[in-house]
Amino acid sequence: MSDLCEALERLKQDPIFHVEQIQGVSTLEPYQKNILTAVRDHDRVVIAACHDLGKTFILAKVLLWLGSTFPGAKIITTAPTHVQVEMLLWSEIRTGFKACKIPLGGTMLNTEWKIDSDWFALGMSPKDDAGDGQSQGTSSRFQGFHGELVVVIFDEATGIHPGRWVQLEGLMTSANIKFI
Question: Bridge partners of 121?
């Protein structure tokens, strides 16, 4: 049992190892390794880069790393449009999940990875939101996520409505939350 605990701890502390050895990515660019290390070391990470550099790809790898190594993690992803959530980010997530050298477990759906009832990743888009996008109250499906680790991944963050940021700031009441 000790060896298993040590292996899990290594996977938690070494996202590069996870992406290369578990997810099967043969080569990571130095900037991608920097992103993985930054997510491990910081609660808020901003990735400023030009178009078509692989930001969505590396966000998918981050989600698979965090989702498979932190039991009970709740990972919420969003983007400016439903098409960007489902056809871009979650397409990368589904592809990466299938390509893993070691099965990560759970059930992968179109925009959801069900690992356990309290352990999941979920893609949410503006069409999922019944609220007005202006408050932190109960008017949004983006509210109410709490746990040992809550992660919010914003893909194409500059296009996300400012009200969405207000809503998601309401999640900051959890003890361990990451905004990427």
Answer: 75, 113
